[in-house]
Structure formats: structure tokens, C-alpha cells
Fold Nephrocystin 3-like N-terminal domain-containing protein.
Amino acid sequence: MADFPQYFENLTGAHHFRIDQQIINLIAGNYNQYTPNGVQDLVLLLNPIPDASHTRNRKKSPPDSECFPGTREEPIGEVTAWADSSMVVYPIAIGKAPHVYWLHGFAGCGKSSISLEVAKKYAGSGRLLASYFFFRGAGERSTMNRFAATLASQLMTVIPATIPFMELSVCAEPGLLSGNVSLSAQLEGLVYKPFQAVMSGRLLEETSTKGPFIIVIDGLDECEDKRGAEEFIDHMLKFFDLHPNIPLRIFVASRVEQHIRERLETDGVLLGDLNSHWPGKDIEKFLRESFRTVARRDRVIQAYIQAHGEWPKKMDMDMLLKHIGGSFVLASTIFKFIIQSATEEDVTTPMERLPLTLELNGLDTLYTQTLARSQHLPHFHDIISTITFFTQSLPIAVIADLLGIEVFEVVRVLLNLQAIIHVPGTDEKGRVTFCHTSLRDFLTTQNRSGSFFVPPSFHLRLSYCFFSYILEKGGDVGQHFERRWELFTEVEASDITNEIEQFKARHPLHTDRLPYHAFICSAFFFSLFVDNPQTPDILKCQPRSTGKEHEYAVHVAVRALNPEPSSPHNANPGF
């Protein structure tokens, strides 16, 4: 590449004219001028997603989360130490410069808040090249369709010298922005190559002094285009392998989904486990400072403190912290619940709501409001009911297998509920648990939970799921089927009739799953023969118990032996 000239002349001897705003770049001896209209044309051509960066309106374009001042300093410090380190330090320690930092953890543990802090810090110092916050269900922001173009639009703002190289890429590959070109080609032509082309001379010297540029990618697990996410990771790692000295770092934050973990658990990627940083002290600081702030603004709270002294009292605060555990999102949700303004339906004051949150049924309103966020989604009741009835918590992937649905369908329901349900960072290993045991009590008490009530008769659904699981995948889960069937038979006959009607109305989740009437027949005869394995004559068999189960047997036999063959859920070519 040619050396920069010591000086240049432009429009020598010209007079009586005016030059409006222009962007002037001197790159490798080539002099380039761009009028504002030219830049605007390129922006229009790129058509970036306007609400994908860290500067978006978070109220309208979630996630709406940020670190409370003075909290999460330890994990943020680890990220900034990596981002600010020279390319010489890390090769000595781990053998290879880590261009990529992957921060992972369970849903709601604060990854997006830390991503925002990292983006703001390096935007302030001029080192943030671009930021992109994925969000599930947010249209194209949850895909890779305009990912490269959105990064490029931010890159050209930070380093205008990249503009001519982007234009060259678009001219050389007219379909670069049409969606007919691979994501790798888009990233190469619009982001990596333009950045690489300008990293010489004075700009490279400044970068060496200030530190490398940073790209922040948050919520990669929320990208609904898994193949696109895989292609992005593979191409990124390959690019850094080919260009180990390029002054660029990429920060990625996500849950530990398999397609991400398989690619990022490798050399050249620094791993940060947010779960290893217990946030208890940070949560306490957040709550204490937040209560002080609201007390200074709320005259009702001020009057209460003048009459009764400190609020919240130390004992109540200690109980609240124990109640919350290590969940920042639960802490924030409970705090907002306590200090919310009174309404016609709820005229209580914050001082009255605080002790309610510590009682067994004090969070019923919060549970109802939170569960309503996912109530409209497919399989909501099956997913919540399964978690409720399994005191031994299950991984997300197991819940999906058991119900015969996709993993992403379980994740989609749970992510809206992370204020009250712990959503693990990985689908295969971590386990789904309730943030507090009172949620299970709420869901199994009909006069408290209303439409969210999980009836005991749901054990029929679970026994069907285990029966189908045995037929589809085998495995030693027979004891689970037996247990769920036994629990179902303990239900009152009226409940059984209602549940069978509901069960019959459900379509099989997979076309190759056993029809409901075939399952009930099989389970019913199982209950007759289980205590008489040596007797082939059905007339000699007796039901296992008397009384209520005789009534139950009549209802089951009538429903099971009179299926409706025209019903679409009975059509199953596999049986």
C-alpha cells in the first residue's frame, strides 16, 4: 500500500465558490470526497435496523435493562480488562490472542445490562465500532437478515474512511444487500474488509495507543435464525485466525445454547461465566438505594417514616433479600411491585405491600401479571403444568422431549417469565426451577390462580406423555408413567370426566403420537392387569381397589371405548 503524501492541493487558484459539508478521506494516497447526499444514499442502501443498537429506546425496543450504578463491577471489570489489554499480553498466558469474549449465564442474570455498560463505555472513548441487541420475536432484529448491514451503518459513522470500501464491495457484488448473498459474504464485504482496509498509517497508530475497537453482540441465543448464528460465529473465528493482529475485539453475550456453545468453547475465545459472580451484595445495594430514592420522592412514604421510623426495617429487608435469592430480575420485579402507584383495584400503599411479598400468598398479583405475558403462546399450560408437578426439576430439552414439542417453544414461553422462573443458561444441562416455592402453591390452589390453575387431573396428560415417550424413544421411564397414572386415578370422578373431555379435544402434538383413546384403553387395561400378571382371563381380573376407583373405571371405559373415528386427532397412520 502506498505511503501517505506529506501534503496535497485541491482546487488550486479557484475563487468565488462555496463548498458545503463534505466528508474528505485520504486513504493510501487516494483522495475521496463525499457529499452528505452520497452518505445518505449509502445509508438508505444499507437500510439498517434502527432499534438494534445500544442507543435504541429500550422502553419500546427491549431488553430494557441496565446496571444499577456501582453494581456488577467485578464481571464488567473482567470484560474491560480483556478489551483494554494489548495483543501481546494474552498470547503469553493462553497461547493465542483472544479476539472474542463470550459472556454466558442463565436468563435474567444481567447479561444484557452488562452488554449495555460495555457498549456505553467504549462508545464514550470512541472505540465502539458497532453494537447489536437481538431480541426474540422482534421481527428482523431476531434474525440475521440485516445484521451485517446494521453493523456496517454504525461502522461508517465511527470510521467514515470505510465508506468507499463499502461502496466498492456493493459495486463488485450488486446482490450483497439483496438477501441472495451469504451472511459470510455480507460480513466480509461490509464490515471486516472495509475495517481492515483502513487499519494503516495514522489510524493504526492511534488504535495501538487507545486500544482495539469493540463490537458488542447481545442475546445471540435470541436470534431465531440458528443457521445464521452458526455462520456468523464460524466466519468470525475464521477471520480472526487469518488476521490475528487486526485491532478488533468482539464481545458476545448469550445463554449457553448448544449451537453456540459447540462453536465458542474453543481456543481464541475467552469465556466469562456470569453465574460464577454471586450478585447478593449488588442486589442488596440496588434495593437499599432504590428504596431511599423513592422515599425522597414519595410524600406518603416520607410521612410514614416520620411517624414510624426507618422503612423498610432491617428485619424486613433481610427477609426480602432471602426471599429474592440471587435473581436481579426478581429483585427488580418485586421492587416495582412494592412501590407501584395505587389504583382503583389496589389501593394499598408500599408499606402495606412489602409485608405481603413476604407472605405465602403475598405475590399472587405479581404471579398473575407475569404469567399473563406468556398465556397466549402455544403449549403454555402444558409447559407450566409439567414444571409444577415435577418437584425434581427438569432441563428445557427434557421438557420439550416429554411434551413432544420443539426446544425453542419451551424457551419462548419461559423467557417471558424469568422474573418468577429460573431459566437456565443451557437447554441440555441446567434445570428449570421456580424462583420461590410459593409459585407452586399458587398454581395448585384454584381460588388463588384462577385460569392458571394446574388441576390434579393433569397427571393424565403427563402419563400420556411418558407413555408416548416410551414408544418413541424407549428408556427407563416406566416408573414415571405408573406414578402419574396412579396420581390421576386418585382424582374425583367428576374431575376425570372433565379432564378426559379436555384431553380428547387436544390434537396430538406429533402426528406419530398415540391417539388419546388408544392410550386410555392401554392404560386402563394396564391398571386391571398390573396386579394379576399371571391371569390371562380378563373375567378373573379385579380392579386394584374399590370405591372411588370403580367409579373411575366406569368413566374411563365408557370414554375410551367410544372414540370418535372422524376426529382429526384420532388419525394416526403410524398405528
